[in-house]
Amino acid sequence: MEIVIQIATFLLLFLLVVAAAYLASRALAGGAGRVGGGRLLRVVEALPVGRDRLLVLVEVGDRYLLVGSAPGGVSLVQVLEGDAARELAGRLRAGPAGTLSPDAFRRLLDRWLRRGGPGEGTP
């Protein structure tokens, strides 16, 4: 009977340690990797395009910045403003939970890049 109590105590302590480790990792992460934003910037969509490479759509006021993120840094790909930004904003509002599906995001990106390339619309 004593061995059963010891095993039960061990399992309970083990579960408490696992739960504490889980809660500590969530608290220490502090939202790392979460797509979101602050008061002035909002990450609208992030699309993995390769190993350690992302295309990220960031809303800044009435503009949308498409930036590429890679281990070597972050670079501006395209600035969407005017009609392109209004069209994107309308599509985002119409989509489920305010987001584009990855396929819709790819189609929009392809169309905007065909319009003028990375340099068009930059300040």
From TrEMBL:
InterPro entries: Flagellar_biosynth_FliO (IPR022781). GO terms for cellular component: membrane. Keywords: Cell membrane, Membrane, Transmembrane, Transmembrane helix. The keyword Transmembrane helix applies. GO terms for biological process: bacterial-type flagellum organization. It is found in: Cell membrane. Pfam families: FliO. This is Flagellar protein. The lineage of its organism: Bacteria, Bacillati, Bacillota, Clostridia, Eubacteriales.
